[in-house]
Each structure stands twice: as structure tokens, then as C-alpha cells.
Design brief:
- With 384 residues, this protein is of the alpha/beta class.
- 29% of the residues lie in helices and 24% in strands.
- The chain has 11 helices and 19 strands.
Length: 384
């Protein structure tokens, strides 16, 4: 059985006021091309299909076109809700859509629902476990007062799984999975479900499965030594993901349940990257042309003097600049209190000189000292 695994589409997401719909549409088109090229039997969408529980109309239209395109290829589509999705909306009319090979599992069921996908050796059983909080699992399995953590909840969920007789089982889940307490690589665009480690699920729980198709973390990575994988998001959603090489995972399940995997790269319309330096240097033609100027940009300015409309200047050459930051040096200081007598002794010039060195990390130049002394003297004369 051949499959494509992806997750965290977050269709409808905006980043720093910029809509990501163009990027998402391009990524979905590439995924459909891979499905056709590799003749995939199934597409696994492991949660966070939308960015919000009530997605905008344009996002729904885009996702509808994606699912329609896949359905017309005859591929089986299996999708679960993530923590960003509204389970009831995702699962609307799912029993009717199953007749077209489209399985949208919005709410967790007891036991977890599964779909058997035939191949030359029989079938592969895919288990659908959409995101659910411990309180929902307690209610579903009627166990009040137990299952306080996500791991305890998932242990209960897996106790009721109906495994295939051939041992060729895939699990789809949207959880924060760790390996012996070690966290996966995270990015700023992910939403942590809870605090204190109660949201963590150990990868050892997934040992019975020949492959676990995870969603929730935006960087593609394996968790532990077992075949437990985050596909990562198909689009970059924060500048902490600048180094990511976005992709989808293509897998083949063999006769004995062994899964061979391959990462298939996704090319963005506009990349996301950081630039750093003085404003005058960043707008030099040779610097601007060194990469695509229409990329999504985070600019870190190292200028020490005030600038007039730096964001406007940068936008004239980088039209998709998203963020502007200033690099400031911080000098370690002790917590000594400056008493009134010391303040009087230093005077306005001395105090400003100390402040300048604290902010910039260096003393004022002779020219700056002269300007400051003149300004301080003029201020004293006006006051007197």
C-alpha cells in the first residue's frame, strides 16, 4: 500500500497580516501531483486542516477543491481533526462521503474507527484518532476521575483498538509526542495544548503500529527509533521555521508491515528568511538581488542612529517584508541603586553618558560628547 502523509495545513492562516492562501494552494497542488506521480493508494491528513475552528470561506473553498481533486484520482482520503479544527464541522456528512472514499474523522469514537485499504497482500488497516482532550476521553469511555493526562487518555484509547490479523496497522493521531521525555524540535507557530507535561505522549505507546502518522509539530522528524513520524507542515508559518525544508512523506507498506519512507520536497512560492545589517547595506542592489526580494522577510537592523521610515524603505525593495526588529546590545549591570548625591555629582551629562553606554555597549565618541555637552548647557540655561 502506497501513501502520502502530511498534516498541519492550517488553511486560511495569516502570518504578520499576510494571507498564506497563495502558498497553501501551491503546496496542495504539489501534493496532488505527487499523489498522481507515485500512484498513491491513500492520503493521510493528520490534523489541523484549518487554522481556525471557524475557517474563512476562501479556506473552505480551497480545501474542497483539494479533496475533490484527490477524489477524482480514485485515492482514499483519510483526515482527522487537530486541536485547531472544530471536530463537528470536520466530520459533517462523513458517513455519506465515505462512499466516495473520503473519511473525515472529526470526533473521537470508542473504539477508534479504522479503514481497511486493500493491496496485493491483503489490506492495511488505518486507525483514525482525532485530537481529543482527556476530559473528552473520560466522557467517551465513561471513566470519571481517571485519565488526567493525554498519555493516560491515549493508553485507554489504544486498549480498545481492533488490530488487523496481519499486523499491518497504521495509526493517525494529532498529539504532542516525546521520546523518553525528550521533546521534538519545535517552532514558534505551534500551539502547545497544555502545561506541565500533561500534554505529552510517549512514543513507546505506538510500538504495535507499523507506522504512526502524526500531526501537530511543524518540522518533519522521526520521534525515537520506531516508525513514528511528524510529516511537518507543508508551508512555513514562522521565522523559526526558516531552516525547514518543507516536504511530504511518501511511504510503502510491505508484505511484512515494514514501511519504507521518502521525503518529497515542496517548493514555496515565496520563501521565508531573515536578513540582518545596516539599512543602507540591506537595500544595496547586490544585496537585494542575492536572493528573491519577494520572499517573506524578517529584517534585523543593526543601525545605532535613528532612521526615518525604515520599514517603508525596506518595503520599496522587499515588498513582502513581514517584520522589522532592531538589534540592541545589552551590557550586564549590577543592581546598585544610584542615590541622589551620586545623581547630583554626575549631573545631566554624566547620567546621559552612563545611559548611552548602557544601551549601546560603548562610550560616546568625542564628537558625540561635544554635542551632548552643548545640549546640556543650553538646557541648563533655559531652565535658569
Amino acid at each position: 500500500m502506497r501513501f502520502i502523509h502530511t498534516s498541519d495545513l492550517h488553511i486560511g492562516k495569516t502570518v504578520s497580516g499576510f494571507s498564506m492562501l497563495e502558498e497553501q494552494e501551491a503546496a496542495l497542488k504539489q501534493i496532488m501531483d505527487y499523489v498522481k506521480e507515485r500512484q498513491a493508494d491513500a492520503v493521510l491528513l493528520s490534523g489541523d486542516l484549518y487554522d481556525r475552528s471557524v475557517p474563512p470561506a476562501a479556506a473552505v473553498t480551497m480545501f474542497d477543491a483539494f479533496l475533490t481533486g484527490l477524489s477524482e484520482m480514485g485515492v482514499t482520503i483519510l483526515a482527522i481533526a487537530g486541536n485547531h479544527d472544530c471536530g463537528e464541522r470536520i466530520g459533517f456528512a462523513n458517513r455519506i462521503l465515505e462512499k466516495r472514499g473520503l473519511y473525515l474523522e472529526g470526533k473521537l469514537e470508542a473504539p477508534v474507527r479504522f479503514v481497511d485499504i486493500p493491496d496485493q497482500w491483503g489490506f492495511v488497516r488505518v486507525h483514525l484518532a482525532p485530537f481529543a482532550k482527556p476530559a473528552e476521553v473520560r466522557s467517551l469511555y465513561r471513566c470519571e476521575g481517571c485519565m488526567k493526562t493525554f498519555e493516560e487518555s491515549f493508553e485507554e484509547i489504544l486498549r480498545h483498538v481492533t488490530y488487523s490479523p496481519g499486523g499491518r496497522d497504521i495509526l493517525m493521531a494529532h498529539q504532542f509526542v516525546v521520546n523518553q521525555g525528550l521533546l521534538p524540535e519545535l517552532s514558534d507557530s505551534e500551539t502547545r495544548v497544555s502545561v506541565g507535561g500533561t500534554d505529552q505522549v510517549e512514543t513507546a505507546l505506538f510500538q504495535p503500529f507499523c507506522y504512526t502518522a502524526l500531526g501537530h509539530i511543524h518540522g518533519c522528524q522521526q520521534i525515537g527509533k520506531n516508525p513514528v513520524y511528524y510529516s511537518g507542515s507543508p508551508v512555513k508559518y514562522s521565522f523559526s521555521e526558516c531552516s525547514h525544508r518543507k516536504s511530504v512523506l511518501y511511504g510503502e507498506v510491505g508484505e511484512n508491515g515494514k514501511v519504507t519512507l521518502e521525503r518529497l520536497p515542496l517548493t514555496p512560492v515565496h520563501d521565508m528568511r531573515k536578513i540582518r545589517g545596516r539599512l543602507a547595506d540591506l537595500i544595496l542592489p547586490e544585496v537585494v538581488s542575492a536572493a528573491d526580494p519577494e520572499d517573506y522577510i524578517l529584517a534585523v537592523l543593526t543601525d545605532e542612529t535613528e532612521l526615518l521610515d525604515p520599514i517603508g524603505t525596506l518595503r520599496s525593495v522587499y515588498p513582502n517584508i513581514m517584520q522589522l526588529k532592531w538589534e540592541k546590545r545589552a551590557v550586564e549591570q549590577d543592581d546598585t541603586v544610584i542615590h541622589d548625591d551620586i545623581m547630583k555629582e554626575k549631573g545631566p551629562y554624566g547620567l546621559f553618558a552612563d545611559f548611552y553606554e548602557l544601551v549601546t555597549g560603548k562610550a560616546m565618541s568625542e564628537e558625540q560628547e561635544a554635542v551632548m555637552r552643548e545640549t546640556a548647557e543650553q538646557a541648563e540655561e533655559e531652565v535658569s
